[in-house]
Amino acid sequence: MSEEMVIRCCAPTMACLKTGNMFNCAFETHAQMIDELRRLNQRLGRKGLRILPLRWRNTSALLYLYRPKMLAQDLRDPLAQRLLAECGYPGGDLLGFL
């Protein structure tokens, strides 16, 4: 995964305009992708960002780049908590999961 791809797919999150972005990324091996995500998290963590795999498929992964502090703030919003509860998701549990 190139840094250019992360920037192209996640520019709004990197610029603090959005809490997070999801995007698909191809990989050759599962181990390669895990190593790449670790490397990225080491670099992005200093900037208040984190990247997680949400779903794995054969040779691609659905990734989520987000700002944990913004997500925590979003999940404290009463409207967000109500919407999550209506869908069966307790808001506090989601934050702990991520």
The percent of residues in helical segments reads 40-55%
> What count of domains describes the coordinates?
2
Low-confidence stretches: none
Strand line-up in the sheet with most strands? 1-3-2
Instruction: From the alpha carbons, calculate the radius of gyration and give it in angstroms.
Output: 14 Å
The first-to-last residue Cα distance is 22 Å
Number of helices: 5
Structural class from helices and strands? alpha+beta
Number of strands: 3
Biggest sheet architecture: 3 strands, antiparallel
If you average the pLDDT, what whole number results? 89
Shape: globular
Which series of helices and strands comes N to C?
HEHEEHHH
Strand percentage:
15-25%
Write the layout of secondary structure elements.
Blueprint: H1 3-14, E1 20-26, H2 30-45, E2 50-57, E3 60-66, H3 68-76, H4 78-86, H5 91-97
Antiparallel strand pairs: 1-3, 2-3
Helix pairs in contact: 3-5
